[in-house]
Amino acid sequence: MITISLIALFLTLSHWILRKKIVGTDREELTEAGKKVNIWGKIVLTIIIFTTIIFLFSVDILAGEVMKWFWMVVIIMGLGFQTFIDWKYLKDSIEYIVSLIVLILGVMLIYFLY
Question: Cβ atoms within 10 A of the Cβ of 69, count?
């Protein structure tokens, strides 16, 4: 079984490589409104994820299918949010495509390998 750490490392490297290949080396900055939404969205997502992890520890269902679906939802929420931020606040960029590709790749890796 491939651990979630290796999948996360692979997705991080994939995102970096795809961004270099598809978007190039120039990275646009988010607008001020985009930065605020990005920070608050990530804070909310982090709180939701940690609350869910605490719940899973308390009911002791950390094995098998439950964790598989938990990690799939985490990837969908995190990279889905990043895709939205890139699409909404980077108007002249196609960087959202990179996040969308990595989201699909991550869901497939978790589904088939975890």
Answer: 13
Residue 40 and residue 91: Cα distance in Å, rounded?
A: 20
pTM reported for the whole predicted model = 0.87
Taking only the tens of pLDDT, the chain with its 114 residues reads 568 899 999 999 999 999 999 988 777 888 899 999 999 999 999 999 999 888 877 776 666 678 888 899 999 999 999 999 999 998 888 899 999 999 999 999 999 987
Show Cβ contacts of residue 19 under 8 Å, excluding neighbours closer than 6 positions.
27, 95, 98
Report CA Rg, the chain: 15
Taking a C-beta distance cutoff of 8 angstroms, is the pair 86, 99 a contact? Answer: yes
